[in-house]
Each structure stands twice: as C-alpha cells, then as structure tokens.
Amino acid sequence: MATLSVNETTTFRWSFQEDVIRYANAAIPAIGVWRQKLSDCGLTKAVELLKRSGLKVSHLFWAGGFTGSDGRSYRESVEDATEALRSAAALGTQILTVCSGARGGHTYNHARRLIQSALKELLPLAEQWGITLAVEPMHAGCGREFTFLNTLEETLMVLEAVGHPLAKLVFDTYHLGHTPGIVDQIPQIAPKIALVQLGDGRAEPAGEQNRCRLGEGVLPLKEMVTALKSVGYEGYYDVELIGEEFEPRDYESLLEHAKDAFDKLVTQP
Predict the structure, then answer these.
(1) How far apart are alpha carbons 263 and 93 in whole angstroms?
(2) Which residues contact 189 (CB under 8 A, 6 or more apart)?
(3) For the domain 3-267, what is the CATH superfamily, name and number?
(4) pLDDT in tens, 146-176
(5) What is the pTM assigned to this prediction?
(6) Strand pairing report for 56-64 and 193-198
(7) Which H/E stretch holds residue 204?
(8) Where are the domains of the chain?
(9) Alpha-carbon distance 251 to 52, whole Å?
C-alpha cells in the first residue's frame, strides 16, 4: 500500500527530534531521514526516538560524491557510503539514496565509470541488509553541483551497466516532471523506481530548487501519480519541499497541506 512520507528538508529549520515529534503528532506515517540532522542527533538517540514515535523511515539520504566534486576522494566517498548503509540498516529502512557528484574535471564517460564502480562495490553490503541503492537524477537547472546525472536516460544507462536488482532510481516529480513525455515513460521505467518524491514548481529550476506546495505549480502531478498507480507502484511517496517560500512558522500548515495533497493525488480515485 502506498505510504506518505515527509522529507526532513521540508522542515529545514527543525531539528531531528522536532521532526520526529511533530510528524508523529501530525499523523504523518513515515519520515525521509537526512543524514545531516541524523548526525546532529546521534544514531542511537535517533533510533530510540523513531521507535517511540512509531514513524517508519522511508529512506536515508544521501550518500555519494564519488566523482570527488565535494573535496573527498573516491575511496573516502565509498567509505562514507558504507557508513550510510550501516546507518540505514540501524534505522530499519530499505532505501539509501545516492547522488553521483558533479562531473567536475572528468570526462563524462569517466564520471560514469566512477559511480558504476562505486555502486558495484557497495552492492554486496547492501545485499546483506536488503537495502536498495536509489540513484537520484536531478534537473540540470539546479542539480549540477550534486550530480552529473541530470536526465532519466543517463541514470537508466548507469543502472543498466550495473545490472543489479538493488540498484534503482529515485523518481522525483520536481526533477523529472519537466521531461517531455515523462508520463508515457512511467510504465517502462516502473520496475526501476525505488522511491517516488513529490515536489512541484511554478517554473523550471534555474539555479536553485524553488519548489512550491503540491498542486500549486505547473507539473503534471496527478498524471504522473495516476501512471504510477496504474503500473502497481505501492511504495513511499516522499514529500520534498525546498525553497524560499517555506518559512519555519508555516511548517505545521505545510504538513497538513502535504497530507491533504497526498490524499487527493494518491488515495482518491
């Protein structure tokens, strides 16, 4: 059964503890855990907070940077991703999201070889815990510093080269919703989708992610969700809202709006 999740970046200014308490109080069933907030809280305390709250963890984000664009070496990034897998297992989630890192000074083919190599190295450990490595493509207008995989096609090529059932993708409606013909592509790519993230925008991203509340933008959210439902997707729908218009004083109403939008998009016929 499809389940609503809220990503911790949505409530950017709240702490991990505040997120857990307030999501649970708002009857949000699942949380997308951000490693930055998890680190601030501490893994042991976070696990206990989640256990007491009853919240499920839809996914842990993120690991990656295998191209060295964030100043770490390839080996350091793989070791960090290994630690992220251990954290994901402790949290009880079956999904770790992955960003390749920017292309930087590499050729495109070499950058692609780096992420493919990293995924292949990490998959045996992921397999032990049953954790899917979900690679996230991001729109070139806002995601180049995080990943050189800016299109669905580029991401699918990487996954095909890796060729493992636990290597899949994140389908973020904000990043992919501007792709021409995206709704028609969903039946073909559905087996590769590990996680759906719900985001909306009033225009294509240009420099930063300026999302808006679900249903208030130009993206074909209902059409995408209907296509996902028609092919049997029953995983998490993780609401990720990032942008200047989301103020801390409005977080409670944002959670209520997310619940209502999820109901209209996913649970209603």
Answers:
(1) 23
(2) 152, 156, 169, 171
(3) Divalent-metal-dependent TIM barrel enzymes (3.20.20.150)
(4) 999 999 999 999 999 999 999 999 999 999 9
(5) 0.97
(6) unpaired
(7) none
(8) 3-267
(9) 22
